[in-house]
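Hey, I'm writing a tutorial for new members on how sequence and structure tokens pair up, and I'd like a real worked example in the thread rather than a made-up one. If someone can provide the structure for the chain below, I'll link this post from the tutorial.
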Amino acid sequence: MEQFSFIFTVFFMLLGPVKLIPSFAGVTRGADGRFKRDVAIRGAVIAAVLCGFVALAGEALLGKYRISIDALRIAGGLVLLIAALQVIFQKAQASSPGSGTPTALQLAASPVAVPGIVPPAGVAAILIFMMLAPQYPGMTQAVAICLAAMMVLDFLVMYFIDWVMKTPGLMIVLTVLGSVLVFVQVGLAIQMLLSALKSLGVIKV
């Protein structure tokens, strides 16, 4: 249960709907409901396929490279920390004009599926958990369940984006929740780094 809650928390921060809602609403602004639903369906399918591929790649990498559990903890901590710092110190960037009107499939592939649903930090998290799985019984199943839950949540918020955006006070709540999750992410990152350094005998905590 502890593994499940930890994996769910990490995936919710990196792959979950909180960060997806404003980006999806932005890229589909002005489009009709049918177009938004088409993008939502295709984006969710593409993201799910990518996550499945990354999870399988993680198992293959474990068999090919001898990576210690402490190295994976350090890598995971750094990924979480860098991703959180990018959110904290990100600056507004002007969107570059595109060439023509993108199709639903083009939007679904990018920027909705990648990096909207599956950012680089999310890919790294999946890889790390799958490479850690042999050390922790039940982790593979937990990763699969949590990934499926994230894909369902992401699909639902995209499919019903108009209702989500019109719900009074919801965006304020999500903004506050996002800030809390970023802080938790920093804490988890530091804890993973400390655990690895303690295991290696570098520090005593």
